[in-house]
Amino acid sequence: MTIPGLFPVLPEIVLLAAACAILILDLFLADDQKRVSYWLTQLALLACAVITVGTANDEPVRAMNGLVIDDMLSDLLKFLVYIAVSLTLFFSRDYLTLRGLFRGETFVLALFSLLGMMVMISAANFLTLYMGLELQALSLYALVALDRSAKRSSEAAMKYFVLGALASGMLLYGMSMVYGATGSLDLDQITRAILSGQGNRMILLFGLVFIVSAIAFKLGAVPYHMWVPDVYDGAPTAVTLMIGSAPKIAAFAFMLRLLAGGLSALEFDWQGMLMVLSLLSMILGNLIAIAQTSIKRMLAYSTIANMGYMLMGFLAANSDGFSAAMFYVVVYALTTLVSFGMVMLLSRQGFEADQIADFKGLNQRSPWWAFVMLIVMFSLAGIPPTVGFYAKFSVIEAAVNVGYVWLAVIAVLASLVGAFYYLRIVKLMYFDDATDASPIVARADTRVLLSFTGIALVALGIFPQRLMGLCWLALSQSGFL
């Protein structure tokens, strides 16, 4: 393969080389020099972002014998996951340092997880989709178990690994069924084979059930949600932030490539499946979150509910639906960064601010950080003028436009239920007395970035057109509209 032929996968090559270099270099660094590995990791992310922009094309380009595709959608989503991973590491520095986790393997595993996401985002073949998914998943399993002294982390990692392996097996089995029916692993060829009437329809639907089940597990949708609260609660908060932000963007790309791409001819069938997943996720996620006393478990069930809203936009299966779902998952990832960033900001040596009660009287300790957390809760609840309102409005509108009025009504009612536990946090911050009067200490750059991302939730809510237009343009240029 010529050098120009490698341009579409140049960001992945650079990231892989950087991860290997940091892994080797870290062996020669003393414990007080680990910041070198950290800054090299951030530099690698910056280099990948520059290369991704530099190798962007006006038209989709296939590479590696058709295994990957470089289009505007992949470039945009890659750029977003770079930002998500970079901010995760920025927000986590103090948290990781105080717990002895600020070391090379943390950064290397984060980079390998990111590499898996990039492969998923650019995949044009069953093989690359599966390879990217497994690379991301194995890295995240290891990150959850990184704190070997914490029994909860080890238990969470074991649950995550066993259930993740089961979901991966379901995905592989479903893909094998589709391959057996169509005779191809290439997504475009699979579409053409189904449209031309090749393959047994019963076998295709059998494989589709397993594929959708695996996707639902990766998203954390009901009834495949059992791992989400345990992993979110048991993992170190920095790892929880990693799991809850960038991988959701990659999972959306994975679902888009598979369902709206390769299996678009089975649209009617997977729409019905996604409808059930969306309905169950919105209802159960919001109802069970009410009973939680842990902020991490509450946000875990919030994730389940939010993935239900995203699926509601996706099942519309048109330009409005896909762009609304993409907009929703990007907004959710941004909101997750700020929410868990706030949890880490309030944590300190020997203390995890992982209980809802830990936010009591936050306004007395710091009016600014109480305001930032208020913005986060308003955005998750879908209260204007935050961007969460526009995100929920867009997916509900997409569902109504294709006739799912009853589903939109249930979504609105579920949002009202969800508003209760989000506003409960606001009530604790502003109307209860503080039980902890210790000062909130953080690095200056962490304060600036966390404040900036919090303000962005309001700014994007007031001016959402640019981001929504970008999502629509990326999907249009990549052939999904």
Task: Give a topology summary.
Blueprint: H1 10-25, H2 35-54, E1 61-63, E2 68-70, H3 72-98, H4 104-122, H5 126-144, H6 151-182, H7 187-195, H8 201-219, H9 227-234, H10 237-244, H11 246-262, H12 267-289, H13 295-314, H14 319-346, H15 362-365, H16 367-381, H17 387-401, H18 405-431, H19 444-462, H20 465-477
Antiparallel strand pairs: 1-2
Helix pairs in contact: 1-2, 1-4, 2-3, 3-4, 3-10, 3-11, 3-14, 3-20, 4-5, 4-11, 5-6, 6-8, 6-9, 7-11, 8-12, 9-10, 9-13, 10-14, 11-14, 12-13, 12-18, 13-14, 13-17, 13-18, 14-16, 14-17, 14-19, 14-20, 16-18, 16-19, 17-18, 17-19
Describe the model.
Strand 1 and strand 2 (68-70) form a beta hairpin. The protein is globular. Helix 7 packs parallel to helix 11 and helix 12 (267-289) runs antiparallel to helix 13. The longest helix is centred in the middle third of the chain and has 32 residues, at 151-182. It has helices spanning 10-25, 35-54, 72-98, 104-122, 126-144, 151-182, 187-195, 201-219, 227-234, 237-244, 246-262, 267-289, 295-314, 319-346, 362-365, 367-381, 387-401, 405-431, 444-462, 465-477, and strands at 61-63, 68-70. By secondary structure, it is an all-alpha fold. It starts with 9 loop residues before the first helix and ends with a helix. Helix content is 74%, strand content 1%. The protein has one domain (4-477). The model has no long low-confidence stretch (mean pLDDT 88). The protein contains 20 helices and two strands. A two-stranded antiparallel sheet has the order 1-2.
Strand order of the largest sheet: 1-2
How many helical stretches?
Answer: 20
Quick one: how many beta strands? 2
- The arrangement of helices and strands along the chain is HHEEHHHHHHHHHHHHHHHHHH
Poorly predicted residue ranges: none
Integer average pLDDT: 88
